[in-house]
Amino acid sequence: MTALQRKLAEARAEGRAALVGYYPAGLPDVDSSVRVIEAMVAGGCDVIEVGLPYSDPTMDGPVIQQASDAALAAGTTPKDVLAVVRATAETGAAALVMSYWNPIEQYGVDAFAADMAAAGGAGVITPDLIPEEAGPWIRASDASGLDRIFLVAPSSTDQRLKLTCDASRGFVYAASLMGVTGTRDKVAATARKLVQRVRGATRDSGLPVCVGLGISNGAQAAEVASYADGVIVGSGFCRRVLDAPDLDTACAQVRDFAAELAEGVRSAAR
């Protein structure tokens, strides 16, 4: 089992969903981003998605775009991202990378998979890569023992759900709404129905389903945790760092936010 698979299995054994936090490497700089991630884990995150900053993040809303732009302006490179992955794995959390496909292709698909595994990474989320075009990545991730996480959306047909779930390993990422990332006042009504549809596509494999896009507080985390295997939160963490007057304040606020979310996933009736 990968570190990701172990974390999801441990959460399931405890009768709860896993808490998955996203944070871009290099915000506001590489060393500081490690401190923020350590605070996320201290607050209760089981899994960390280390974002690889990208100049054209088509899935991401204004908060994560601002965070990525700041990380790029600070000079963050893919090698820096892998250093953050290594530091994240050392916290005991499962370390993933979330990256658009172009940076991985430019790095070299086989080289990225090998370097990710060497850094202690468990898997990679590729939001703009579809299984039909993922042959090189499937081969590279198999060779390096990495989980590969593809996305499904409310618009996905049953055929596409099955295709995507069959190609995924670790978990399948259920984007709860048709839109970009960002905190919202309530969880999209489409989220529960999408998870139910994914359950049908994963009946044989039992592949976990994690839900992201729009979760902004502990009550929403509890709601999603009542029917999903994992709750994914990103913009809320980034916003707290972007708004904080200094790094110590940012880390304290991030830790408190993670603790609120962790309490939510643990309080959900399952």
From TrEMBL:
EC number, as in UniProt: 4.2.1.20
Function: The alpha subunit is responsible for the aldol cleavage of indoleglycerol phosphate to indole and glyceraldehyde 3-phosphate.
HAMAP family: Trp_synth_alpha (MF_00131)
Keywords, alphabetical: Amino-acid biosynthesis, Aromatic amino acid biosynthesis, Lyase, Tryptophan biosynthesis
Active site: 49 (proton acceptor), 60 (proton acceptor)
Pathway: Amino-acid biosynthesis; L-tryptophan biosynthesis; L-tryptophan from chorismate: step 5/5
GO CC term, one of those recorded: cytosol
Subunit comment: Tetramer of two alpha and two beta chains.
GO-annotated molecular function: tryptophan synthase activity
Family: Belongs to the TrpA family.
Classification of source organism: Bacteria, Bacillati, Actinomycetota, Actinomycetes, Streptosporangiales
Matching Pfam families: Trp_syntA
Superkingdom of the source species: Bacteria
Record protein name field: Tryptophan synthase alpha chain
Catalysed reactions, semicolon-separated: (1S,2R)-1-C-(indol-3-yl)glycerol 3-phosphate + L-serine = D-glyceraldehyde 3-phosphate + L-tryptophan + H2O
SUPFAM superfamilies: Ribulose-phoshate binding barrel (SSF51366)
Source species of the chain: Thermobifida cellulosilytica TB100
